[in-house]
Design brief:
single chain; mainly alpha; elongated
Length: 202
C-alpha cells in the first residue's frame, strides 16, 4: 500500500514537471497529495490495525492461513489496483486542470478510489465478523459509510465530464476528508478500544 501510494505521488510530480507551474497545476498537485494522504489514513488508521490484530489472535494453522490469504491477498489486490487507477486519474488531472477529464481517466480517478474502498470493505468484513464481541461490542462487519461513498463515486463517473478536472479532484478530496471526519466521530469508541488493545498486547 505504501509503495502504491508513493507511486501515485510520483505520478503527480512527473505530470506537474511536464507542465508550466501555474496556480491551477500547483493546486492540482496539492489536492492530489492530500488525496493520497487521505487514502493512507483510511487504510492505516483502522483497517491495517484490525487485520493485524485478527491475524495475531487467529488460531495457528489452517484458520490463520486462510485469514492471511483473504486479507492480504484477495483484500489487498483491489486496494493496490485502485491506487494505481487513481494515480492515472491524478496524472491526467494535473495535465488537464482546466478541461473535463475524458471518460477513461475520470473512471480511473473515481472508480479507482471506489475499488480501493471495496478492498477496505472486504478486509473489514473478513476480519470483524469474527471479532471478539465482548471486547469490541460496537464493531460492525460492514462499513456503511465507505460502501455508500464507493457507490456514490461510481454513480458520479458519467457526470464527471461536466466539470473541469481540477474541480472534480477538489470535490473528491473534500468528500474524502468529510468521510474521514464522519468516521472519526461515529467510530471513536471502537478506534480507541482497538488502539488500547494493541498497546496492551505490545
Amino acid at each position: 500500500i505504501i509503495i502504491a501510494l508513493g507511486e501515485s505521488l510520483v505520478a503527480i510530480g512527473a505530470s506537474a514537471s511536464e507542465e508550466a507551474l501555474t496556480t491551477p497545476v500547483v493546486a492540482a498537485a496539492v489536492l492530489g497529495s492530500l488525496l493520497a494522504f487521505a487514502a493512507w489514513w483510511l487504510y492505516f488508521d483502522v483497517v491495517a490495525l484490525v487485520a493485524t490484530r485478527r491475524l495475531v489472535e487467529a488460531e495457528p494453522g489452517l484458520s490463520q492461513n486462510k485469514l492471511a490469504r483473504d486479507s492480504y491477498s484477495y483484500g489487498h489486490l483491489p486496494m493496490v489496483a485502485g491506487i494505481v487507477l487513481v494515480a492515472l486519474g491524478l496524472k491526467k488531472t494535473v495535465a488537464h486542470v482546466d478541461k473535463p477529464l475524458e471518460i477513461v481517466p475520470a473512471a480511473a480517478l473515481l472508480g479507482g478510489f471506489a475499488l480501493y474502498l471495496a478492498g477496505h470493505l472486504w478486509v473489514r468484513w473478513r476480519n470483524v465478523r469474527t471479532i471478539d464481541r465482548e471486547r469490541y461490542p460496537t464493531a460492525t462487519a460492514l462499513n456503511r459509510e465507505r460502501l455508500a461513498f464507493a457507490l456514490l463515486l461510481l454513480a458520479a463517473i458519467p457526470l464527471a465530464g461536466g466539470v473541469d478536472a481540477l474541480v472534480l479532484l477538489a470535490l473528491l478530496t473534500a468528500a474524502t476528508a468529510g468521510l474521514i471526519a464522519l468516521e472519526v466521530r461515529r467510530q471513536g469508541y471502537f478506534r480507541r478500544r482497538l488502539r488500547t488493545a494493541m498497546v496492551h498486547t505490545d
